Amino acid sequence: MAKACIVGEKHLILGFKGIGFEIVAISDPHDLAEELFMLSRRSDIGLILVTESIAAEAPGVVEEFRSRSDVILAVVPMYEDSPRTGYNEMRKAIERSMGIDLFKKEEDETSEQE
Fold it and tell me: Rounded to whole angstroms, how far apart are CA atoms 62 and 66?
């Protein structure tokens, strides 16, 4: 069975260990490329989550990894007031692959409530 891993700031990712994720703690976004490379060489890793704050500082690294690896990589927001770049990336990827915007209705309803 493929393993899941999360990469990011230690204080943000420790809770994922309790639900079976392998954690890779980094504090410098410049270390992301090396860590993703090391994880991509492992055949037991099937999913990598990266904290939004680290990914935002290294967007080219995330895109390059996605283009070169079969491992699923998702950017996850870690706090309520996040800029939601992970959500927006997921939305665009689904729209690109399926040709429809699955989240449009949900977003429209949220806008109307504000």
Answer: 6
**pLDDT for res 13:** 94
Cα distances from 53 to residues 18, 27, 109, 111, in angstroms, run 21, 10, 27, 25
Report pLDDT digits (tens) over 43-99: 999 999 999 999 989 989 998 998 898 888 988 887 656 566 666 666 666 566 556
DSSP letters, 54-81, are: HHHH-HHHHHHHHHH-SSEEEEE--STT
Phi and psi torsions of 33, nearest 5°? -60, -45
- The residues that bridge with 2 in the sheet, in sequence order, are none
